[in-house]
Amino acid sequence: RMMARPYHVVVVLLLLESSVRFGEGASNPGVVARITTKGLEYANQYAVATLRKELPAIRLPDFSGNFKIGWFGRVSYNFHSLKIHRFEVRNSDLSLLPGLGIRASLSNNDLSLGGNWKVKKGFM
């Protein structure tokens, strides 16, 4: 038995979704799709594996700013060359929202990143 490649599954789901939308408002759309719990679990596992693979290759944008700390005064910060080193998924979930679509959620996960940063406090 041959197993479908993950991107084939995604393409088929997108085609089914677009063909179902094409038939909205018609009395007979011609296509009926059923997404099972097992299918959602498979999509969730594939999404988590993709996140683990792709996130380390992403470079986060640089950012800077300043804020005031009570009597201490203004503090400036600058973060640059940030890169994700590790991403651990503890809780992820895909669920159906009837009439709306699919909800994806991630919670209680662990992310490790590194980069360069600078914090300045002017005394005058």
From TrEMBL:
This is Bactericidal permeability-increasing protein. The cytotoxic action of BPI is limited to many species of Gram-negative bacteria; this specificity may be explained by a strong affinity of the very basic N-terminal half for the negatively charged lipopolysaccharides that are unique to the Gram-negative bacterial outer envelope. SUPFAM superfamilies: Bactericidal permeability-increasing protein, BPI (SSF55394). Keywords: Antibiotic, Antimicrobial, Disulfide bond, Glycoprotein, Immunity, Innate immunity, Secreted, Signal. Its main location: secreted. Residues 39-124 form the Lipid-binding serum glycoprotein N-terminal domain. Coiled coil: none annotated. The N-terminal region may be exposed to the interior of the granule, whereas the C-terminal portion may be embedded in the membrane. During phagocytosis and degranulation, proteases may be released and activated and cleave BPI at the junction of the N- and C-terminal portions of the molecule, providing controlled release of the N-terminal antibacterial fragment when bacteria are ingested. Residues 1-25 form the signal peptide. It comes from Marmota marmota marmota. PANTHER family: BACTERICIDAL PERMEABILITY-INCREASING BPI PROTEIN-RELATED, BACTERICIDAL PERMEABILITY-INCREASING PROTEIN. GO terms for biological process: acute-phase response; defense response to Gram-negative bacterium; defense response to Gram-positive bacterium; innate immune response; lipopolysaccharide-mediated signaling pathway; macrophage activation involved in immune response; positive regulation of macrophage activation. Pfam families: LBP_BPI_CETP. It comes from the Eukaryota. Monomer. Homodimer; disulfide-linked. It is found in: Secreted. GO terms for molecular function: lipopolysaccharide binding. InterPro entries: Bactericidal_perm-incr_a/b_dom (IPR017943), BPI/LBP/Plunc (IPR032942), Lipid-bd_serum_glycop_N (IPR017942). GO terms for cellular component: extracellular space.
